[in-house]
Amino acid sequence: MKDFKGKVAVVTGGGTGMGRELCRQLSREACHVAMCDMLVENMAETKSLCEAEAPSGTTITTHKCDVSVERDMQRFRDEVEDSHGPLVNLLFNNAGISGGGSFLTDEREDWEKTFGVCWYGVYYGCRAFVPMLVASEEGHIVNTSSVNGFWATLGPTVPHTAYSAAKFAVKGFSEALIGDLRVHAPHVGVSVVMPGHIGTSIALNSGTVLGKTPVLELSEQEVRALRERMMRSSGPETEAIINMSDEQIKQAMHDQAVRFRDNAPMAASEASAVILEGVRRNSWRILVGEDAHGLDEKVRANPEMAYEPGFWSFDIE
């Protein structure tokens, strides 16, 4: 699919980050966009940006949807059909959150919600919209996995189980679709996207989707639990964390999320351009960022050592 003009694209997680940038870049090329998100205000801002940049006649619609709930995704599909017609050309299963890092110590509800958004959001997205792609003359599915879809950690002291398990599932599902589509719908392509550290608001927004209190508003009891989690993964910094006040703990966690967004080696706009170029090339495997390429090579070269301390200095801040 070399040209997006006049096509219809569905983008999940369109409120911020790569989802927002995909919507903007597609709409600039006169691609009609239907986006969904749980954060309605963010999504409205994305729509305003798209409408200011898109050629006249480009349709941009917004839809509130929890991608981890199939009935929500089915309602989103019905709304897209009402607004854009029965055919879809591009499906970007992009929505994601982070949480449930530890299978052993974190809350089961957080684990399952994170897995639900990051995996079932892709699965339900495909169940809902792939028939509309198959019915079109030209279609492409873009499923967002992660470097954590082939390396299931953020480092030796940071458990990352729910997100990683989901992203491994997305990668495997997308690869399996290659042959399935070739047999049953050869006019529909598929790509699995594996970004490294991209400047997005995932660390700031995930708590909202998980129903958590904003970190700067945590109670004394909640800060105590947060402090304990930080100490378990801090290594030599444990003493410093013990000596921090509650306000310093809250500010440190907020600042870490802001740095993740603002100090990333690649901006969301750059990442989205890489993804769209991968679609134009019909690449089934799209690594995004020098860190993603480097980590991919390192894991492939020595998989037995991938989870040993010191294997990879991967600074998420």
Throw out a few tags for this protein.
317 residues; alpha/beta; Rossmann fold; 2 domains; seven-stranded parallel beta sheet
Walk me through the structure.
Helix 1 (17-28) crosses helix 10 and helix 4 runs parallel beside helix 5. The strands form two sheets. A seven-stranded parallel sheet has the order 3-2-1-4-5-6-9, with helices on both faces. Strands 7-8 form a two-stranded parallel ribbon. The protein is of the alpha/beta class. It folds into two domains: 8-200 and 265-289, NAD(P)-binding Rossmann-like Domain (Rossmann fold, 3-Layer(aba) Sandwich), CATH 3.40.50; 212-263, no CATH class. The protein is built from eleven helices and nine strands.
List unreliable stretches of 5+ residues. none
Write the CATH fold name of the largest domain.
Rossmann fold
CATH superfamily (homologous) name of the largest domain? NAD(P)-binding Rossmann-like Domain
**Largest beta sheet: strand ordering:** 3-2-1-4-5-6-9
| Rough outline | globular
Task: Tell me roughly what share of residues is in helical segments.
Answer: 40-55%
What Rg, in angstroms, do the CA atoms define? 20 Å
- Number of domains as seen in the coordinates: 2
Main pleated-sheet profile: 7 strands, parallel
Beta fraction of the residues? 5-15%
Number of strands: 9
Number of helices: 11
Task: Report the average pLDDT across residues.
Answer: 91
In sequence order, what are the helices and strands, one letter per element?
EHEHEHEHEHEEHHHHEHEH
Structural class: alpha/beta
Task: Output the CATH class name of the largest domain.
Answer: Alpha Beta
